[in-house]
Design brief:
alpha+beta, Alpha-Beta Plaits, Arc Repressor Mutant, subunit A, 4-stranded antiparallel beta sheet, 10 helices, 4 strands, 57% helix
Length: 213
């Protein structure tokens, strides 16, 4: 009798796509539908990231880029740009998911380093060079974007928003909100027609200059 093979079955190949501007549930639905329409097997999809079965040749990559661009998204291919996008997605996850799961604040540096599997010092330097804003400042900008969304929903008090987003007090939230936007939370609620910035445009020069002061 031949000895029974103990070799594990080979896992099917997958391809991970990083997609810029995919930052909401509606975006996820659109991207999934469009990729499935192209015949791709979408294994998993989250904010800014899609995993599909198999590998993609240049023809399919071109088709994916085209359909994403027609819907206001962008396929990230450059290595350094991919790293920047991964950092932004890690920050998005930290602000919108992880902070709300933990009573104790998570340290940005350790969280980002863990998510990327790289030393924080190197990714932080790259981010600052390419974006003109530090990761810590970008975290503030994303937190303010979340506060703006919650203010638009008008379902929570400012005190509840402060706790949900992880601010130590309403005063801290209000001071940082005005520093970034130039408005108090109350003034902002009067301007609910303002639209939320896409992920890749949050760190605008005007907001960055306010944070640097």
């Amino acid at each position: 009798m031949h000895p029974r093979s103990t070799r594990q079955p080979t896992q099917p190949a997958t391809t991970t796509l990083l997609v810029r501007n995919m930052v909401c549930d509606r975006c996820i639905r659109v991207v999934r539908d469009e990729l499935q329409h192209l015949g791709l097997d979408v294994r998993s999809i989250a904010l800014g990231e899609v995993v599909v079965s198999g590998t993609m040749d240049s023809r399919m990559t071109g088709e994916v880029k085209g359909v994403l661009e027609r819907n206001g998204f962008e396929l990230i291919e450059d290595k350094r740009t991919k790293t920047i996008e991964k950092i932004k997605l890690a920050v998005l996850k930290l602000v919108r998911e992880e902070r709300q799961k933990n009573d104790r604040p998570l340290k940005t540096s350790s969280f980002v380093a863990r998510e990327l599997g790289q030393e924080y010092q190197s990714v932080s330097a790259l981010f600052s060079t390419m974006e003109g804003v530090t990761i810590e400042q970008y975290v503030i900008l994303q937190r303010i974007e979340l506060v703006k969304e919650l203010l638009k929903y008008d379902e929570l008090t400012l005190s509840e928003i402060s706790y949900k987003v992880g601010y130590s007090s309403v005063q801290h939230l209000s001071n940082q909100f005005k520093k970034v936007t130039g408005l108090t939370p109350s003034q902002f609620k009067q301007l609910v027609k303002n639209t939320r910035n896409p992920l890749d445009r949050v760190s605008s020069s005007s907001r960055t200059s306010r944070l640097s002061k």
